[in-house]
Specification:
This protein is mostly beta strands. The chain has 2 helices and 26 strands. Strands 3, 4, 15, 16, 17, 18, 19, 20, 21, 22, 23, 24, 25 and 26 form a 14-stranded antiparallel β-sheet that branches. A hairpin with a 2-residue loop joins strand 10 and strand 11.
């Protein structure tokens, strides 16, 4: 798998007004003052073949046909955005900005939005480099491989009907070190990160998703896109009369166990949730071919992207894309031969997503 597939934005078979390209990192930074509240950050680049979007109040307008693509590069209008949980406070959004977006993949890869401010992921260097430079904010992060398994580029995706579906390229885990200068304060950062490029070629339906890192290099994730009444939700409130009746397009769980080098997959997992102090506690349960998983994820902060796309006049589609820093507070996996718990893999930190609405 090459960087060309990561940094490219292939417009083939795109769906008018409905095709996304997203690239994003989620960072998990150690919090020495309170280890139970891992500091987290998301940095995101994206573009969409629509005339107008409003993202957390930031209006983005552009021509639909502005994507220029060559054998080694793309140029188009784009958006960069981010949030930052500093261990105590969620800064949401940390920024939303737009301008010319450039990607290239000749000898590594580069993705950058420059409009006087700079937002860049440079994979041509060793170590790779992520930077944000704008008034009042500077982020400089070095990205290093973690393990051979976690740091490879992995393609995945699903086609539902004709060319409707999604394609992903993800890097499950890397090591990260660097700094953030924000609010008049400079802070050193160290931890791990997950990276993903996704092309969504369909209306963006609701989903559950989560990704988690353990200190020993174990990795867990789940993904559960679905259809149902949740697509009709239009407010940010957690309690909603439309929160019921999911019909899953897929519902899969993965557990890479660093101690054994095995990747365990379970399909048809179930998710449940309740709320404590208006933050969700998610539970995953599933069984397949003699393998069983039971996992509880307790969240402790919330960031929300509210994405609106005008349809006609005052009518808009809206998506509430929620991300929740979380700890795994219960975990049990068995395969008929052995059993693994948090006592075996150590503390597990990560992020849960739950989106509703449609855009």
């Amino acid at each position: 798998m090459t960087w060309a597939e990561v940094f490219d934005a292939d417009p083939t078979h795109q769906l008018p007004h409905r095709t996304w390209w997203w690239w994003w990192f989620i960072f998990f930074f150690r919090n020495r003052e309170n280890p139970a509240r891992t500091k987290q950050m998301v940095l995101l680049w994206g573009t969409r073949n629509c005339r107008r979007l409003v993202i957390n109040g930031h209006a983005w307008e552009h021509r639909q046909d502005d994507l220029v693509r060559t054998d080694h590069a793309i140029d188009c209008a784009g958006v960069a955005a981010g949030w930052w949980y500093d261990g105590t406070t969620m800064h949401d959004p940390l920024f939303v900005d737009d301008g010319p977006l450039h990607g290239e993949w000749d000898g590594g890869g580069l993705l950058a939005l420059d409009n006087g401010n700079r937002y860049a992921f440079d994979a041509t260097k060793t170590p790779q480099r992520v930077v944000v430079r704008r008034p009042g904010l500077e982020i400089a992060l070095d990205v290093h491989p973690w393990t051979e398994y976690l740091s490879q580029i992995v393609p995945t995706g699903k086609r539902y009907l004709s060319h409707l579906g999604y394609q992903m390229h993800k890097i499950r885990g890397v090591r990260v070190s660097g700094s953030i200068d924000f609010g008049g304060r400079s802070e050193a950062l160290e931890g791990s990160a997950y990276f993903q490029k996704v092309r969504i070629n369909s209306p963006t339906s609701p989903w559950y998703w989560g990704v988690f890192h353990a200190r020993d290099g174990s990795y867990l994730d789940f993904f559960m896109p679905h259809l149902g009444p949740q697509a009709l939700r239009r407010t940010a409130r957690h309690d909603s009369p439309w929160d019921w009746g999911e019909r899953y397009l897929s519902n899969s769980f993965q557990f890479y166990e660093a101690g054994t080098g095995e990747l365990h997959k379970i399909k048809d997992v179930e998710i449940a949730k309740d709320y404590v102090d208006d933050l969700p506690v998610f539970r995953i349960d599933g069984e397949m071919a003699g393998k069983r998983v039971a996992m509880e994820m307790t969240t402790y902060a919330r960031a929300t992207w509210v994405i609106r796309q005008p349809v006609w006049g005052p009518i808009t589609n809206v998506l509430h894309y929620n991300e929740y820093p979380a700890n795994v507070t219960r975990f049990e996996f068995s395969d008929g031969r052995r059993r693994a718990t948090l006592d075996d893999i150590g503390p597990v930190v990560g992020n849960c997503e739950h989106s509703w609405g449609l855009v």
